[in-house]
Amino acid sequence: MGADTCPTSILNYSQPDLTHIGPALTLQTTDGFVQVTAQVRSATSFSDHDTTQPCHSNLCKTCWITDTEAIITRENTIHQVHGTYSCNSANVVYLIRCRKGCPKAWYIGETVQMLRQRMNEHRSTITRQDCSLPIGEHFSGHGHSASNRRVSILQGGLDDTRQCRVAGQRLIAKFRTHEDGLNQDPGFKSHDL
Questions:
Q1: Residue 28: predicted pLDDT
Q2: Is 123 helix (H, G, I), strand (E, B) or coil?
Q3: Class for domain 45-192, per CATH?
Q4: Where are the domains of the chain?
Q5: When comparing pLDDT for 120 and 192, which is higher?
Q6: Of 75, 119, 145, 179, which is most buried with the most CB atoms under 10 A?
Q7: Is 67 exposed, middle or buried (0-12, 13-18, 19+ CB in 10 A)?
Q8: What distance in Å separates the CA atoms of residue 146 and residue 137, rounded to the nearest whole number?
Q9: What is the DSSP string of 61-117?
Q10: pLDDT in tens, 74-119
Q11: Would you say 74 and 98 are in contact if contact means Cβ atoms under 8 Å apart?
């Protein structure tokens, strides 16, 4: 993969209308999947290493659900990951999606813990079949399990809980995961502090 080409993202959704993005985006449709290839000029801050990577610890249960996409797309929304993160990264905003392609199974959360610690908590919710929480309800539902999750860090390098919450709120709004996803509320409001 060249330095000027972002990784390809395969989405199991109806065709998004991304034509307004400009000539840097190429769309191909096969068998109901949309393949989005984005060309990024080297003048941007993007590099081939901007992504979430597994930490490769033998004890880590998050490595095998880590999604290494650097470009996250949903309908008409595109988000580019800036920075290199792993299961050990803390002070991050993360995205959980369903590997089975359920279009509304998008959840954005934030944590000051290491990502793998937070994913262990989500896995516990699913194992307990705690349907009072949307992650538990979706991933313990018929035909699903904790192994159907995939996780990406959308933003990192945040300094504290407040920055994580504000960034989380912005990304919940950007991807509309409150209206059309698993987030139960629109997220943290800065005036609530």
A1: 53
A2: helix
A3: alpha beta
A4: 45-192
A5: 120
A6: 119
A7: middle
A8: 11
A9: SSGGGB---SEEEETTEEEE--SEEETT--SEEEEEEETT--TT-EEEEEESS-HHH
A10: 999 999 999 999 999 999 999 999 999 999 999 999 999 999 999 9
A11: no
pLDDT value of position 185? 76
> Parallel, antiparallel, or unpaired: how do β-strands 9-11 and 25-30 relate?
unpaired
Nearest to 57 by CA among 119, 149, 135, 125: 119
Res 177: pLDDT = 96
Q: What is the pTM of this model?
A: 0.74
- In the block, which residue shows the tokens 């000539």? 23
List the structure tokens of 1: 């993969």
Give 91's contacts (C-beta < 8 A, 6+ positions apart).
111, 112, 156, 157, 158, 159, 160, 163, 164
- Return phi, psi of residue 119, to 5°: -65, -35
Sorted by sequence, the CB contacts under 8 Å of residue 176 that are 6+ apart come out as: 77
CA–CA distance, 20 with 109 (Å, rounded to integer): 29
The dihedral of CA 111, 114, 116, 120: what is its sign? negative
Amino acid in position 128: R
Residues in the chain: 193
